[in-house]
Amino acid sequence: MVKLLDAKYRDLWERSLPAKMLYQLAIYAVSGIGDKTATILYPTLSDIPTTAKININDPISCRNIASVIL
Q1: Where are the domains of the chain?
Q2: For residue 66, how many other CB atoms are within 10 A of its CB?
Q3: Which residues of 6-35 are buried (b: 16+ CB within 10 A; e: fewer)?
Q4: Which helix (H) or strand (E) holds 30?
Q5: Which residues of the chain, if any, have pLDDT below 50?
Q6: What's the pLDDT at 39?
Q7: How confident is the model over 36-49, as pLDDT tens digits?
Q8: What whole-number distance in Å separates Cα of residue 59 and Cα of residue 43?
Q9: Cα separation of 12 and 26, whole Å?
Q10: How far apart are CA 3 and CA 15, in angstroms?
């Protein structure tokens, strides 16, 4: 496995990312499968969508252990 992808049918430019979706993606990312990155794919009508990255840090060492890409 190279990368974890999750598709949602919710325009995240129009409506914010719910905590439960972020939690799901964070669990995928820290699972150790692939490159420790989980990516969410979603449709948008925005003319200028940009990529956002959320780093997941170890609470003790504060080191980056995984990432979620929107």
Answers
A1: 4-69
A2: 21
A3: eebeeebbeeebeeebbebbbebbbeeeee
A4: helix 19-30
A5: none
A6: 92
A7: 999 999 888 888 87
A8: 33
A9: 17
A10: 25
